[in-house]
Amino acid sequence: MSKNNWTAQDLPRMDGRTVVVTGANSGLGLVTSRELARAGARVVLAVRDTERGAAAAREIGGVTEVRELDLADLGSIREFARRWSEPIDVLINNAGIMMVPEGRTADGFERQFGTNHLGHFALTALLLPHLTDRVVTVSSQAHRRGHIDLADLNWKTRPYSPSGAYGQSKLANLLFTLELQRRLTAAGSSLRAVAAHPGWAATNLQNHTQNPIADFAMSVGNKLIAQNATAGALPTLFAATQDLPPAAYIGPDGFYEYRGYPTLVGRSHAASNPELAQQLWQQSEKLTGITLSSLAT
């Protein structure tokens, strides 16, 4: 059951709290940032394009700051973290790309896995010494179709599948949350790792496939099934502000979790596998060069 049909109007006051939101200049990230700023938070828009970020900040109002961050470049991530020196109450790992054609990040990772998972893995690890409350990572219902191939995470030997790569990256988001929470708990940390998904939200995320059939199918779904970005951001806002169990997963409460009010939702068997989560973490450390010793406890 959802909690009293919760909306952004139910956000607690966030005065004095700092929230970092990746991918904050459009779509769900923009709505998330706007509502948190409206509630009094200082919102840091971590974006690849700072000009677009500045335009978004002007639209949002409130106390905002724009900082450059390219999640497809470990150098950019390290520089963002190096320049950070103050407490962060909430880190929202929101940015993502969806079902794009095959490509590589600056470090040679498959684009969707590299951006959606490895980029946020590295960012969270490097910022963790500054975090005071929680990490929120945005996943997707597509995680249910995902498969983690530990021997070929970057699609070097498999025939490339845009939807398969997206599903793997979103499954990785949930496994990352599971293992991060396990490690935080084992270390006696009060930090929480939680996840959220927006259901089917009509944003600009769905129009980069370069596949006319896929684009048409998603445009129809956007018109007939999807909720708007304002509603799609509610699970993230709920996850960022409510008292939730460790490793909680929040999504819409209605119509196969495509839309509705935010509530605790289930996840696939693979997304609940602690051994797989540990194995993925170890592989992520090897790929990024960021190890557990980098994490504060």
Notes on the protein architecture:
The structure is a single chain. An eight-stranded mixed beta sheet has the order 3-2-1-4-5-6-7-8, sandwiched between helices. The chain has helices at 27-38, 50-60, 74-82, 111-127, 162-186, 212-224, 229-232, 234-241, 274-288, and strands at 18-22, 42-47, 63-68, 88-93, 131-138, 192-196, 249-254, 259-264. With 297 residues, the chain is α/β, with parallel strands linked by helices. Helix 3 packs parallel to helix 4. It has a single domain (8-199, 228-287), classed as 3-Layer(aba) Sandwich (Rossmann fold). The model is unreliable at 220-224 (pLDDT under 50). Helix content is 38%, strand content 16%. It is built from nine helices and eight strands.
CATH-assigned homologous superfamily: NAD(P)-binding Rossmann-like Domain
Terminal CA distance = 34 Å
Main sheet: strand order: 3-2-1-4-5-6-7-8
User: Which structural category do the helix and sheet elements fall into?
Assistant: alpha/beta
Shape: globular
CATH architectural arrangement: 3-Layer(aba) Sandwich
N to C succession of SSEs: EHEHEHEHEHEHHHEEH
